[in-house]
UniProtKB/TrEMBL annotation, chain A:
It holds the Pfam family NifU_N. PANTHER family: IRON-SULFUR CLUSTER ASSEMBLY ENZYME NIFU HOMOLOG (PTHR10093). CDD domains: IscU_like. Gene3D superfamilies: 3.90.1010.10. It comes from Levilactobacillus lanxiensis. Residues 10-131 form the NIF system FeS cluster assembly NifU N-terminal domain. It comes from the Bacteria. NCBIfam families: SUF_scaf_2. This is Fe-S cluster assembly sulfur transfer protein SufU.
UniProtKB/TrEMBL annotation, chain B:
Belongs to the class-V pyridoxal-phosphate-dependent aminotransferase family. Csd subfamily. Its cofactor is pyridoxal 5'-phosphate. It catalyses: (sulfur carrier)-H + L-cysteine = (sulfur carrier)-SH + L-alanine. It comes from Levilactobacillus lanxiensis. It is an enzyme of class 2 (transferase). This is Cysteine desulfurase.
């Protein structure tokens, strides 16, 4: 029975984030914004972030259109990085990309991702990895591009 | 109507496999078709028996390879009923053929203020070459729109094609809307205004009989891989007079007549447009695919797909949760069926169907202006070919029902 396998991808928490996305709105004022597209499918994410004086994510919001996985991932990402400082958020983005590509990570790193860690199941659906990573790429790009001159992050 | 099967499945070993523990149902034929054993065998035979470079050796293998290659050209010529083999140029595929026309004929004939007319349902490969040519030449690119049921709006075509029009480029069959466009009628319209017409045959040549002389198209491009030939091979038909007047596409070996230090003269047709060593084995494989299609009979291929559409389309259209694009009248719809399921993103549909062994495409189908025109981001698409059966259509229907159940109720019983 083929569809029962879907349960491992479309877990309840993933469907819940997709049906009731957190932070799905554009910010009135923001310090970092980006629009990213997945050209293979046409999915779009607009991400806006408000960093405070301490480089902490004071607010974050997204809009756009996409599949269950991309919408759910964006919702979980915004939940996970809200309140985190920029450096931590970038580390989490790296952890997430590594995780979905199957690279081992200490449990503490995965715990830091919150609900988003559940998307490790995407590994069994290689065609959908891009759907899951789009939001995290957007986060990375938004945080790195605004202050490229003082960029001190690893590539 | 019950779709009578063509009894060809044993020729396609790839179809006899399980995907995600389910028997594979391959419904992504508009992206690429599967190859019959005859085609893969012909590639192996060519490489193991006749392989050599063509047209430039005096030895026996070179002669055999040349004969195989030119035989393939004659097969393609007959397949589309071109007047002579020199009017058939081997290309990498439809994209390559359309780019060839845009960058040779287009480059030589389009001037500032001229108009190029395409349709809003074009694939990017029959859109971007004209768009970029128009930008470069300060010409205007105009789009023919669609009727309410998703057919090409011929009244709009009559309005858009004017005496300023120099090139009309239209898909013979749409890779999204599932319609066959009236290419002969459009050719007449283009010619009345002194324009030439380019047919994009990528979705038509594999599925319906094509007669380029009856259509009276000036150019016609198609791909081998969508008609069960190898990837990386296709053909461009062009009327001799036009091809002869056109500058070459690429320069190099094989396409020259004589090379001096400061200038060169070009080879005769079709070699003027076949610079460098061509995809010889690919051409041979395409020739075999043509033989295969001819032995089945293109009218039988067309009738078989039509019978599946007659069976399936009304069931899809009747489902209130489904939105089916293009005409809802099966008689006007090809075996390319784009659809959406309310509340479920096409990517999620495609993943769910894949878990049921049913391979469909999801996305914008390389037709972003069409998606925007229809107010869509993406669709799912099931596309049928001669080896698909009514049972395949049933599998799609069952898998769709289960997909809806899954997403509407969170999970299915294991």
């Amino acid at each position: 029975m083929g569809l029962s396998k879907l349960n491992s991808l479309y877990r309840e928490v993933i469907l819940d984030h997709a049906d009731h996305p957190r932070h799905k709105h554009d910010l009135q004022t923001s310090t970092n914004t980006i629009t990213l597209k997945n050209p293979t499918c046409g999915d779009v994410i607009n991400l806006s972030i408000k960093l405070d004086d301490q480089d902490q994510i004071a607010d974050i919001g997204f809009s756009g259109d996409g599949c269950t996985i991309s919408q759910s991932s964006a919702s979980m990402m915004t939940d996970a990085v809200m309140g985190k400082d920029k450096e931590t958020a970038l580390r989490m983005a790296k952890t997430f990309s590594d995780m979905v590509m199957g690279t081992e990570h200490p449990q503490a790193d995965l715990d830091e991702l919150g609900d988003a860690a559940i998307l490790s199941s995407i590994m069994s659906f290689p065609a959908r990895i891009k759907c899951a990573t789009l939001a995290w790429w957007a986060l990375q790009r938004a945080l790195l591009e605004e202050d490229a001159p003082t960029d001190e992050e690893e590539a | 109507m019950v779709a009578k099967n063509l009894d060809v499945r044993q020729d396609f070993p790839i179809l006899d496999q399980k995907v995600n523990d389910e028997q594979l149902v391959y419904l992504d034929n508009a992206a690429t078709a599967q190859r019959p054993t005859a085609v893969t065998d012909s590639l192996v035979h060519f490489y193991q028996t006749d392989n050599a470079n063509v047209h430039r050796g005096v030895h026996t293998l070179a002669e055999r390879a040349t004969e195989d290659y030119e035989n393939a050209r004659r097969k393609v010529q007959k397949f589309i009923n071109a007047a002579e083999p020199e009017e058939v140029i081997f290309t990498k595929g439809t994209t390559d053929g359309l780019n060839l026309v845009a960058s040779t004929y287009g480059e030589a004939n389009i001037q500032a203020g001229d108009e190029i007319v395409i349709s809003i349902m074009e694939h990017h490969s029959n859109l971007i070459p004209w768009q970029q040519l128009a930008i470069k030449k300060h010409a205007t690119l105009k789009y023919i729109g669609l009727t309410a049921d998703g057919e090409l709006d011929m009244a709009d075509a009559a309005a858009k094609i004017t005496d300023k029009t120099k090139i009309v480029a239209i898909a013979h069959a749409s890779n999204v809307m599932g319609v066959i466009n009236p290419l002969a009628e459009l050719a007449k319209l283009a010619h009345q205004h002194g324009a030439i017409i380019v047919g994009d045959g990528a979705q038509a040549a594999p599925h319906v009989p094509v007669d380029v002389q009856a259509l009276d198209v000036d150019f016609y491009a198609f791909s081998g891989h969508k008609m069960m030939g190898p990837t990386g091979i296709g053909a461009l038909y062009g009327k001799r007079a036009l091809l002869e007047a056109m500058p070459p596409y690429q320069y190099g070996g094989e396409m020259i007549d004589f090379v001096h230090q400061q200038d060169s003269t070009w080879a005769q047709l079709p070699y003027k447009f076949e610079a460098g060593t061509q995809n010889i084995a690919g051409a041979v494989g395409l020739g075999t695919a043509v033989d295969y299609l001819t032995s089945v009979g293109m009218t039988n291929v067309e009738a078989h797909e039509q019978a599946i559409v007659d069976y399936l389309l009304p069931k899809l259209v009747a489902d209130p949760d489904l939105e089916v694009y293009g005409p809802h009248d099966p008689a006007k719809h090809t075996g390319v069926i784009a659809f959406n399921v309310k509340g479920i993103h096409p990517h999620d549909i495609a993943t769910a169907l894949d878990m049921e062994g049913v391979a469909v495409r999801a996305g914008h189908h390389c037709a972003q202006p069409l998606m925007t025109y229809l107010g869509l981001v993406a669709t799912a698409r099931a596309s049928f070919y001669l080896y698909n059966t009514q049972q395949d259509a049933d599998r799609l229907l069952v898998a769709l029902a289960e997909t809806k159940e899954f997403f509407n109720h969170g999970a299915v019983k294991a």
